[in-house]
Amino acid sequence: MTHDKRMITGKTKLLGVIGYPVEHSLSPVMHNAAIAACSTGQSPIAHLGLDYVYVPWTIEPQNLEIAIQGFAAVGVVGFNVTIPHKEAILPLLSEISPIAKVVGAVNTVSRKDNKWIGTNTDVEGFLAPLRTTYNRDWSQTVAVILGNGGAARAVVAGCAQLGCAKILVIGRNAQKLEEFRKSWDNSLESKNLHIYQWDELPKIIPQANLIVNTTPIGMYPKVEESPLSAAEMANLPPQAIAYDLIYTPNPTKFLQQAQQVGVIAIDGLEMLVQQGAAALKIWLERDTVPVDVMRQAVRKHLGLTS
Ligand code: NAP
Hints:
Distance between the termini: 12 Å
Number of strands: 12
CATH topology of the largest domain: Rossmann fold
Bound molecules: NADP nicotinamide-adenine-dinucleotide phosphate
Radius of gyration: 20 Å
Strand content: 15-25%
């Protein structure tokens, strides 16, 4: 990781992340490494001498509005938004990008012409490995999404952008699942969207060309759990992709099962890095940022080798 020798002065510009809690966010690690690389000679844009710092801000829900006003007062350039503010912040913004409207959540806010502009870079982050390393013709793809929470919304939007033939969302709570489906009514995404209960999963598995885990099953402390049984994983079609949004542990049980049956396994680390890189591009108004430095910083922080 870049050794950060930067000085914070009266000219240093402020970036950050708001959440509650936010102490465990990896975003400060990732963004400060990128900023340091842009200012200390490890990046092709080092000559810019970028003078920013990225700070985690713990904001309780009842303080969200006053915090945003305070950010405007002290000249914050932009910030990421994490749980529980991703939806609550929408009415406090002057503009919301089309993709954030589709997802119904904002994870990146920037200041432009004295206005707060919100967008969502999770979709871009989710799509990055699918559009690069694992790109293919998606028009015949059946995408199966496990879970129907916040991250599942970005995944539905991403699968629709890929042009998947069918998007099947599997949930455990019938009422929440129906609300999820209704929330897409009259949208382009709703065209190929179908909802199913967990007990219907075994019959769906053999058609799942792309299966995405958006549940927390497999995270600490229940690292031995997977949303699929070994037999279900073995029933995926050949060339299927198993994508887990979880980035630690790495690999999860779900991805270990995928590797055992020889399907493609993608972890959530690249999504995390690429949603961050997309946000940094917006704040710095640049087409390129040092993504490799960001990836390396997160991997090192998580104790991952290579
Ligand atoms: P969320 O809004 O709480 O949604 C979680 C979903 O999983 C809900 O539909 C929930 O169902 C379901 N679920 C939870 N436990 C389950 C279980 N035991 N069996 C079946 N379903 C279960 O959380 P989120 O914000 O979407 O995040 C989900 C996961 O994605 C987390 O692991 C998070 O770390 C990861 N994530 C990764 C990235 C990245 O950049 N890689 C970005 C965002 C999120 P109920 O509604 O019925 O509880």
